[in-house]
Every structure is written in structure tokens, then in C-alpha cells.
Write a structure and sequence with these properties.
Its EC number is 1.15.1.1. This is Superoxide dismutase. By secondary structure, the protein is mostly helical. The chain is built from ten helices and three strands. It has a three-stranded antiparallel sheet with strand order 2-1-3. A hairpin with a 4-residue loop joins strand 1 and strand 2. The longest helix is centred in the first third of the chain and has 31 residues.
Length: about 240
């Protein structure tokens, strides 16, 4: 997808921003397909009692769908602005691309990160790296939980892979900022701590929601993302 071209950090100088958006809009005007809402790999009620069917349906059909729709609109406007060489409009569209593109990227990973058969502990290379980089699985779990709970306002807590150091690293992102585009880390597992992800069920008690999320983590998916990230080191 065209969004893959936005792996350059968003905090760029003005000249670099113009170059990035010209590349994206030029590609989009030529062969950019519409982004679509991905299907969930399970039923809306499959993650109960950890996440209710009502939350999952609203989160997927309303919130994620809105990010997808607004991303398509922003890309259309970007292509129009590029065709007119309207640099001011190109730059002005950056927040919409960042927010809605990030929302689409983040949620597409999030759904796959969860499973009705999830929970427990990972194994293989993922567990080996967790123990190497965090000391133990429990240390990792505690650190990531604390990070998720501590996010101010809305945002995400992520387990990412650092392709430079070949190690696992935790990071939080505000709002819908996508992990790789803003930090360079490859996203492996994310906890969505926007209130729409849990408020109907957990009210304002975010720690309870974060604690419960460990019961539905799809470690198979997280491990597969790690393998892919390791294979692309240096690419």
C-alpha cells in the first residue's frame, strides 16, 4: 500500500516533508487502491469476557472504519493537491494522513494481536528475546502494563523490534501515531488504551483492562511478526 512509503519519521524539515508527500501523492494518483476495513479473524463475541461483543463491534465497525474512510479522503485530496502543485495543501494534509493512516495501521495489527485462544506465555525465539532484553517474562509484562496504564490521554503501548540493535524495545505512542513511522521500531504487539477500546466495560479503570488483555494475546501472531522483522534486518 502507498502508506508503506511513509516509514520516514514525520518529524521532518519542510523540504523533506514536501519530497515525501510528492512521492506519496504521485504514487497515489497512478495506482493507489482504496484502503478497506479488514475483517476480524474471529466473531465479535469471541474475546468475551475480556472484551465484550459490543465494544468489539463498535471499535471495529465505527472507529476503525472511520479511520479508513478518512484516510481515503485525505489521500484523494493529496492527489488533487499534488496535481495542482499546491504545496501548502500538501503540507496541511499531513495531520490527517498521520492520524487516520496511523489509526488504520494500528488497528489492523491490533485485531491480529488478539485471539480467543490467546494468553499464557510465548515460546521459541520470542521468549528467548524477552528474557534476554527484559530479564524475565514477568518483568516484560509488568513494564509494558505500567507503560500502557501511564499513557496520558489516548494512545498505545507497544512491544517493538529494533532492527539496529536486533532487540525488543517498549515504546508508547500518543493518539494514533504509528510506531514505525515515529520511532523506527517494527510493531509486534500493541495495547490500545483509547477509552473507546474499553470504557463501556471497564469504565475508567484502565489497569483492569490492561491486566485482562494478557489473557487474549495472540503470541503466535506476535512471533510471526518478529520472524518477519528479523528477516528484513538490513533490507
Amino acid at each position: 500500500m502507498v502508506w508503506n512509503m511513509l516509514k520516514t519519521p514525520f518529524f521532518l524539515g519542510q523540504c523533506e516533508e514536501i519530497v515525501v508527500f510528492r512521492l506519496v501523492s504521485a504514487a497515489c494518483s497512478q495506482h493507489c487502491a482504496k484502503h478497506t476495513l479488514p475483517d476480524l479473524p474471529y466473531d465479535y463475541n469471541a474475546l468475551e469476557p475480556v472484551i465484550s461483543a459490543e465494544i468489539m463491534q463498535l471499535h471495529h465497525q465505527k472507529h476503525h472504519a472511520t479511520y479508513v474512510n478518512n484516510l481515503n479522503i485525505a489521500e484523494e485530496k493529496l492527489a488533487e493537491a499534488q496535481a495542482k502543485s499546491d504545496i501548502t495543501s500538501i503540507i496541511a494534509l499531513q495531520p490527517a494522513l498521520r492520524f487516520n493512516g496511523g489509526g488504520h495501521i494500528n488497528h489492523s495489527i491490533f485485531w491480529q494481536n488478539l485471539s480467543p485462544n490467546g494468553g499464557g506465555e510465548p515460546d521459541g525465539d520470542l521468549m528467548h528475546l524477552i528474557k534476554s532484553d527484559f530479564g524475565s517474562f514477568e518483568n516484560f509484562k509488568t513494564q509494558m502494563s505500567n507503560m500502557a496504564v501511564a499513557v496520558q490521554g489516548s494512545g498505545w503501548a507497544w512491544l517493538g523490534f529494533n532492527t539496529t540493535t536486533n532487540s525488543l524495545q517498549l515504546s508508547s505512542c500518543a493518539n494514533q501515531d504509528p510506531l514505525r513511522a515515529t520511532t523506527g521500531l517494527v510493531p509486534l504487539f500493541g495495547i490500545d488504551v483509547w477509552e473507546h477500546a474499553y470504557y463501556l466495560q471497564y469504565k475508567n479503570v484502565r489497569p483492569d483492562y490492561v491486566k485482562a488483555m494478557w489473557n487474549v494475546v495472540n503470541w503466535t501472531d506476535v512471533s510471526e511478526r518478529l520472524v518477519e522483522a528479523q528477516q528484513n534486518v538490513g533490507v
